[in-house]
Amino acid sequence: MLMAMLQTAFAVTEEPITLNTGSGELSGLLLLPTGEANLKAPVVLLVAGSGPTDRDGNSKLIRGRNDSLKMLAVALAEAGFASVRFDKRGLAGSASALSRESDLRFETYAQDATAWVRKLADDGRFTSVAILGHSEGSLVGMLAAQASPATAYVSVAGSAEGAPALLRQQLKGKLPPDLSERNEAILSSLESGETVVDVPPALNALYRPNIQPYLISWFKYLPTAELRKLQVPCLVLQGDTDIQVPVSQAAALQAANTGCKLQVIRGMNHVLKLVPPDQAQQLASYGDPALPIAPVLVEELTRFLSAAMNGGTKLAAEPSAMSSR
Fold it and tell me: What's the pTM value of the predicted model, to 2 decimals?
């Protein structure tokens, strides 16, 4: 049935959807494939990346919109898969669900994603539920997949290393010596579970006191260790022109759980667009909603989901492959 669905261009309908968490309401959008009477579809929960990134994949810190997750949701619906994408607690339509930034923990995001999966699993319109996590959402999705009735998991542009290692890599060579030394001291303290009072103004955006409890909770997790725990079919997708997460991270993730399939998409960057590794073009793509997402991404994703969500059995590992444009 699902393979037949992939050969049909479904019409797309959307409707608002909310999740009552007990400590606030989260706002989301449900996209449904339409075209057959009484169609019951598999549904995919899309989990956005780090910071103030909304349900569509757009960050408040970047001018313009890329709409990557919105485009992905539409493509999934056209292929016969429903999807839910949602604003994270404290952001956009879910802003009222977080009263104080200092109350936020990484586990909060994982618990919210878990609750979304349970809600969808109880909805009679859906045959099964998969989780797709993008960037930081990859780790959130791993934790939710362990605690929920999800039948499949997908990591897109997710890191294999823990957050402290990523921050060190991203800041290497970009700070003057005195600030670099202070950055390392702060990171080491937070890794040890200790907050820091004296944060230099230049580092305040990263380590402001209100966000430190969240960072401490996040720093505890190692993605490779969490992926190793998964018992459901899983897929690791990665673009080879991603300037934020290199292919080596995806390879390390897949190596941690050899039951997962690794698929590298040639020419795809961090926001799922086909962009060469030119810095100016990369930065421009983060705010260009006219640039479509990589077609091969959709092809590989729907191929995996059609198999993984049609029976729920463990998929055998397949050789890693490089996809062409």
Answer: 0.90
